[in-house]
Amino acid sequence: MIRKLAMFTLIVILMAMHVEASEIPVNHVKATIVKQSVEMGIDPALALSIAKTESQFNHGSKSSCGAVGVFQLMPSTARKMGLNPYCLHDNIKAGLTYYKMLYKMLGSTELALAAYHTGPAYVLKHKQPAPCSKAYVSRIMSEYYHLKAHTDPAIKAHNANQKAIQAKKQTVSKQVVHHQQHAVQQSVQKTTQTVQQKSVTPNKPVHNVIHDIDNIKTDTAMLTPIQQEQIDEIIEVNL
User: Fold this and answer.
1) Closest CA relative to residue 209, chosen from 188, 229, 238, 233
2) Looking at the annotation, which residues are catalytic?
3) Which residue has the higher pLDDT, 198 or 30?
4) Does pLDDT of 231 surpass 80?
């Protein structure tokens, strides 16, 4: 009885996971694929082409042989990588990792795709796709060339987001530079004022004035050698 109850509970959980996976919006699936492929150094157009051919971006998809998810991985393959094939993020990462491994092994996109489809044994032995893989490879490559000519909205959105991030970084960088320049100007002004005070109070020892100037330099961060020379020149001329 307990065993039957445990089995029933497991079936319910798996069914719930399947329904949840099937309901993941295609746009979210595509965006996740693009983000991870770029991070892994894989052309996002190719990554999308593989996923479309494998599952039509349906994470709830399951093949007759037991392959699951967007990239139709065998659960054992994903688990060897320490990844959960039923998790969207992990499924995509495992699929891309597997493709990348095959590409490094075989040195060709077409051969790597063929090996992804049937396993690497035949391709390694014959140095060509298995007959049953030729149509599969052709479908992916056709979709890939289509996406290179007509960029997918998910890729456009990712590129636009990256440009926005880069623009924000440049803005922050300019603000930092402006702050540093302002700090340097203040340092020069303080140095000039300190030197002028020496001329007003001639009895003040020179080493005390230089000590004051050194304190100004210490308080002002990121002085370049040229800026240091500018301050030193003021000291040399006026002391």
Assistant:
1) 238
2) 54
3) 30
4) no
Model confidence, pTM: 0.66
Q: What is the CATH number of domain 2-150?
A: 1.10.530.10
Give yes or no for a contact between 8 and 14, defined as CB atoms under 8 angstroms apart. Answer: no
Question: pLDDT, tens digit, for every residue of 144-187?
Answer: 999 999 999 999 999 999 988 888 777 766 666 666 666 666 66
